[in-house]
């Protein structure tokens, strides 16, 4: 007769249980940033997140759950980000292949000839806003045109950090306002709000935020003191680019392909990978000398050398040796391998967030906040704060959109508030703030592809900062707060 296994007693988490992992996270993250600075992204932040996840796991075990349940929650977290991992690998391959094919050098070359340093930041913001609105993807916008704009900023002598902020601000205009945006559609669906009703509600916070960001970038461009690079340096950069690459409109074909596939709503990872592959295939025809110089394998037959170069550039990135620092730093980038630290960071954050969500630790923190939110303004602020907090602790914008939409939906209905109020607050608190957190999947992605640390570009993400502030203003003033019985 088999012995009877004792039945496990599952205990509800206490408030202290919910707070301990967050305290551990805050201490370890602060220590990592203090000790390593910008280099914290290269491993110390990942270690901090993994040990925070282990702390949460110990609390879950203490409350009576089995290790198998902990492991399953971790697997759920990892599985939720598989599509993002494919996008990251595809972007890494694309940056390397676009450099080798002359696509990014051509964009930069043409940009240098027409750019005005005083208007660079607002121009970068508007270009990214228009592209992201057209394709509905902040990641694709930043990982393609954004990369070229940040590289161009270095070449013309303006701030790469401010440019990254302008790129991200513009990229998230489309992420919020485009009817093609996945997060906009998700926020509308989760709150049972028609998509166009949601977008109209969004316009009341996004419109003023867009104007604030545009005026801000105009003022920064006028007042930041960046006079731009000297004519002599610009001439030397143009000369280096034209020596290394055959500058031609034909090199922009991978960009045209990517835009076309994005408009046709081909999944982002497939569209980006197709553009990267097209660049690798075109490179031997458009940049034969650059390709052979990169692979440096004189013993190989040219066709074999070209195949090896395309394979290698998508794996480990392109390397330029012009002797001019600005040009080499711009072009020596990319490759799937360059995305591995970012993926490590995202996996650690998602496992940590999944444990907090799956075992009720997050709900333990949010429930008292709902009870204390007596006014409409306080309720909207609680939604925005909870969504932002989930970006911090869960490390993923989808978690930051999905959970508040689920948790607060009944409360908005109980108070007679239209669902569009919730969808707007969720998007402004969860979607646009995600790139402001270094270990969030969006913040890690933006830092990786743009080559600018998250905390460095953060102050210049004017649209991302202004949007939730505008939603808070709407909540507390009652302006554009719709009742459930009113036409949306």
From TrEMBL:
A Pfam family matched in the record: Na_H_antiporter
Span of domain Na+/H+ antiporter NhaC-like C-terminal: 170-479
Keyword field: Antiport, Cell membrane, Membrane, Transmembrane, Transmembrane helix, Transport
InterPro entries hit by this protein: Na/H_Antiport_NhaC-like_C, NhaC_Na-H+_Antiporter
Bilayer-crossing regions: 15-37, 43-61, 81-99, 119-137, 149-173, 209-229, 241-262, 336-356, 457-479
A GO MF label: antiporter activity
GO cellular component annotations of the record: plasma membrane
Compartments where located: Cell membrane
UniProt topology in membrane: Multi-pass membrane protein
Family, similarity comment: Belongs to the NhaC Na(+)/H(+) (TC 2.A.35) antiporter family.
Protein's recorded name: Sodium:proton antiporter
Organism: Devosia riboflavina
């Amino acid at each position: 007769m088999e012995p009877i296994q004792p039945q496990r007693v599952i205990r509800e988490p206490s408030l202290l249980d919910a707070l301990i992992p967050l305290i551990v996270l805050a201490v370890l993250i602060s220590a990592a940033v203090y000790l390593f600075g910008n280099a914290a992204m290269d491993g110390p932040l990942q270690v901090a997140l993994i040990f925070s996840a282990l702390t949460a796991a110990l609390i879950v075990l203490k409350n009576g759950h089995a290790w198998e349940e902990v492991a399953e929650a971790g697997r759920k977290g990892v599985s939720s980000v598989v599509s993002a991992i494919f996008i990251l690998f595809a972007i890494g391959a694309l940056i390397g292949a676009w450099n080798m094919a002359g696509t990014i050098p051509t964009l930069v070359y043409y940009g240098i000839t027409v750019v005005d340093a005083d208007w660079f930041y607002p121009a970068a913001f508007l270009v990214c806003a228009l592209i992201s609105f057209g394709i509905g993807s902040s990641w694709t916008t930043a990982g393609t045109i954004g990369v070229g704009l940040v590289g161009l900023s270095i070449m013309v002598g303006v701030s790469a950090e401010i440019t990254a902020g302008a790129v991200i601000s513009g990229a998230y205009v489309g992420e919020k306002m485009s009817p093609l945006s996945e997060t906009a559609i998700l926020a509308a669906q989760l709150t049972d709000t028609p998509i166009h009703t949601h977008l109209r509600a969004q316009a009341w916070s996004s419109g003023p935020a867009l104007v604030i960001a545009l005026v801000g970038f105009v003022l920064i461009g006028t007042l930041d003191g960046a006079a731009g690079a000297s004519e002599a340096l610009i001439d030397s950069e143009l000369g280096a680019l034209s020596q290394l690459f055959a500058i031609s409109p034909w090199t922009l074909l991978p960009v045209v392909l990517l835009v076309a596939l994005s408009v046709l709503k081909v999944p982002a990872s497939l569209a980006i990978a197709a553009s990267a592959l097209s660049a690798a295939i075109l490179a031997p025809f458009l940049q034969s000398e650059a390709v052979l110089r990169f692979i440096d394998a004189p013993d190989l037959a040219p066709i074999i050398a070209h195949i090896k170069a395309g394979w290698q550039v998508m794996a480990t990135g392109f390397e330029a040796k012009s002797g001019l620092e600005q040009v080499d730093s711009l072009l020596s980038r990319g490759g799937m391998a360059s995305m591995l630290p970012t993926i490590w960071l995202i996996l650690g954050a998602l496992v940590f967030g999944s444990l907090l969500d799956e075992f009720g630790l997050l709900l333990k923190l949010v429930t008292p906040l709902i009870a204390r939110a007596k006014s409409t303004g306080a309720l909207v602020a609680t939604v925005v704060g909870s969504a932002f907090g989930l970006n911090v602790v869960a490390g993923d914008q989808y978690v930051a959109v999905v959970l508040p939409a689920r948790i607060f939906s009944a409360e908005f209905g109980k108070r007679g508030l239209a669902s569009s109020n919730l969808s707007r607050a969720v998007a402004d608190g969860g979607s646009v703030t995600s790139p402001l957190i270094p270990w969030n999947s969006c913040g890690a992605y933006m830092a990786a592809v743009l080559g600018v640390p998250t905390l460095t570009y953060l102050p210049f993400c004017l649209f991302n900062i202004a949007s939730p502030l505008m939603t808070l203003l709407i909540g507390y003033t009652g302006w554009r707060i719709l009742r459930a019985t009113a036409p949306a």
